[in-house]
Please model this.
Amino acid sequence: MTSETIPGVLLAGGLARRMGGGDKPMRTIGGRTILDRVIARLKPQCDGLLLNANGDPARFAAFGLPVVPDGVGNFPGPLAGILAGLDWAAANRPEVKWMLSAAADCPFLPRDLVSRLVAALREENAELAVAASDGQSHPVIGLWSVSLREQLRHALVVEDVRKIDRWTARYRLATVTWPVEPLDPFFNANTMDDIAEADRLAALDGG
Model:
């Protein structure tokens, strides 16, 4: 298992209510869209990227990524996006055993994200791996086994599970912590104030 065989799904299926709607990843930070920054961080680490987003996929055409909508209706949250990514991998990349998920509104993701998650999976003989920082887990950002997709579908459709940590609690989970200096690599832009803060952080992150 190496980064060469791990594709990534960028989760952009949320409704961005705290920003008045719209696509958070299309907001601009330091002259570049958040999504452009996320792609730049993950493209060197993953064997291909796809975008999980609902609605008209044409609005993301400029990024040149496959766009996969939720396969479960009524905006059930990021687990549906993860499932959409796993289903895409099973259909289009049958050799793939693992998939990275990441929030499409986290512009400063670590450059060693995939390598450290993979190492933790191996060292801890885990079934899933998620990122953490500053004492907080970020379960949207993690490595998922394609073999668990039917179990995830059952949890979503039959059990109505919505919270990621409720589902991950069923499995051997590796949690990998990153430092938060000079900035938290999992900072995400949820509000317009966050966008202003992200502009400041972009300078610390090298633009």
Observations:
- The helical segments are 34-42, 78-92, 113-124, 149-157, 164-168, 192-204.
